[in-house]
Structures are given as structure tokens and as C-alpha cells.
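Section handout, structural biology tutorial.
Before the tutorial, make sure you can parse a SMILES string by hand: atoms, branches in parentheses, ring closures as digits. In the record below the ligand is coenzyme A, and the chain has 314 residues. In the tutorial you will relate the predicted C-alpha cells back to the input. Do not try to memorize them.
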Amino acid sequence: MNIRPFKKCDADTIISWIKSERIFRYWCADRFESYPITGKDLIAQYEDLAFNDDIFHFVAYDDQGLIGHFNIRYPDKKDMSTVRLGYVIVDDSRRGQGLGKEMIVTALRYAVEYMNASKVTIGVFDNNPSALYCYLGAGFKDTGVTETYSCLGEDWTCKELIYDACDISADAEGFSYYISPEDYMMFRDAVGWGLFPLEEAEKSLRDSIVICIREEGKPVALGRIVWDHGYVVYIADIIVLPKYQGQGYGRRIMEKVMSTIRNNLKPGYSVMVSLSSAKGKESFYEKFGFINRPNDDVGHGMFQWIKEPFTKED
Ligand SMILES: CC(C)(COP(=O)(O)OP(=O)(O)OC[C@H]1O[C@@H](n2cnc3c(N)ncnc32)[C@H](O)[C@@H]1OP(=O)(O)O)[C@@H](O)C(=O)NCCC(=O)NCCS
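Predicted structure of the complex:
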């Protein structure tokens, strides 16, 4: 699945996916007065909104054509760290196949990686379980805040959901998926590894999958997966703070790293997972299936650092 900006010629197709007034209100709440609407009405609304330059319209597509539609907007342009998703809809003939969730995950990635958002919000009616579970599955959390809308002569409760890219709370297995650039540098410093500017650290973290274990809110064990979304996967920064070493944290992080990679493989995919072991730690990684280089089949793994001058005080 890919996403691209909405084009006027998409409008009729998007509107054709709305087969009832109920679905229409799930989709737009009260943002259009009357039902039904045409593609022209959608274009007219988007053209009116264009003057504000705070809303961006997208479609998701694959080799079979358009899959879905959504908007991303700034609810408050003075705070560009928060964006809001809206007008989410999937082709009615392709619903219930995981495509809605994949589209929302892609939209979240776009908002975080390209728009630099740290929070993404969305509203969903509690009588629309497909949308609610799709958003929760994509990583949104229920804020507990609700708003009542009058739709189809009924009172509908709209739940306010939030996705927080800097969320440090742990999942059911005790893992969290965010670490600040400052904490990341603290980890590297604690084990005597090279430091670099926070801006560079932030980029490294943003473009990788972070897996972290926290004790009383403070990160104590870390691992990162750097993946080109194809066959190349690199495991970086497996670090347990010295005080917590020898207590199983490293094994837990590596098990989670390996299961995350496996769970993200599509049928038929193969990936080559590599890492550089710290000296003397090879047997730790052998437990997870890693093979030493060189061997009869492959030569040494090789690397080099290319460095610009940097000191801790920078
Ligand atoms: C809401 C919508 C975008 C979701 O897309 P979708 O392709 O149907 O949803 P998915 O197939 O991706 O489902 C995602 C998850 O929600 C779960 N889910 C979907 N419908 C569900 C239901 N009725 N009850 C419980 N779970 C449900 C799925 O099982 C899946 O979970 P999983 O990943 O753990 O297996 C789509 O149904 C739609 O276009 N609806 C009409 C417009 C609309 O209501 N928009 C929402 C505006 S807020």
C-alpha cells in the first residue's frame, strides 16, 4: 500500500464508497449538512479549506486502484506537533481485510516522520466498532474524553483517541517503544560508546523501531531495529545499563527484537538480520541463531566510522 495526495478525479470514487446515511455520518459527522453528496461537493469543500493551508488530503492505493481516503490537519497551527486525522474511509468492497489498519499505520508514520508530529488525534463514534478497533489496533489510545453529536435523530457519542509517538507506557509484555534522544545518549555513554549530536540521535531513533524496558519509568534496557522494509535488517544498540546487567534484561530485549522482526514478515519474505557483537559477547547472540563471521561461506563483516569532530559539550 502507498499513499499520495488526493486528486480531484478521486472524488467520485471516494463518494461511491458511502452506501448509506449512517456510514456517511460515521465518516464526516456533521461536516456536510445534507446527504447524499457528490464528488463535486467534496471537491468544493476541499477547495474552500485550501485557503487555510492547514489540511492535507490523501488517498491510499495499490495495484488494484484506490483503497481509501483520509485527511491530516493541524487543529491549531500554532502547535505543529499535534495533527488530527479525519474523513477516514476504505473502499466498501475491501473493508474487513486489514487495509484500514494498514492505511492508518501509514498515515501515522507520515505524520510522525514527515510532518514531525509527536501527537496524532482522531474522533470516532462509539457505535462504529470497525473504526474504533481499527484505530486502537493501529496504536491509538482512548483518552476518555467524549463529545455528543446529533446524528440521524439520535445522540451519538464521539470518543477522542490519541496516538502519542513519545508514549513511554509499557504494553502487556512490559515493553515500551519510545526513548528520548537524551536517554539514548545516556545509554551509549553508560557503556562507553561514541556520542553524537542530539539531532543525529533523534533521526536515528525516528527511523528505527525502538524496544525498551523501563523500571519505575526510567529506561534500563534498549534495542533498536533498523529496517529498509525489504530484506536488510540491522540490530543496533542492544544495551542494558550496567546496574541492570546479568538479570535477564538483554535476553528479553533480544527475544522481543527477534519476534518483532518475525511478526512483520509477509508470506514468502526472507530477511537477512545482521548485527555487530561487542567483543566477547558473541555467544549471547549465538543463542538467538546468529552465526559468527568469517566462516566457510562468508568473509569478515566490515565497517568504518566516518566522523566529524564532536565533543560531549557540543
Ligand atoms: C472504519 C474503516 C476505515 C476500517 O477499515 P477496515 O478495512 O474495515 O478495517 P480493518 O480490516 O483494517 O480492521 C482493523 C482491525 O479492526 C478489527 N475490526 C474491524 N471491524 C471490527 C468490528 N466490527 N468489531 C471488532 N473488531 C473489528 C479487525 O479485526 C482488525 O483487527 P486486527 O488487526 O487485530 O485483526 C472502514 O470500515 C470504513 O471505511 N468504514 C466506513 C467509514 C467510517 O466509518 N469511517 C470512520 C470514520 S471515524
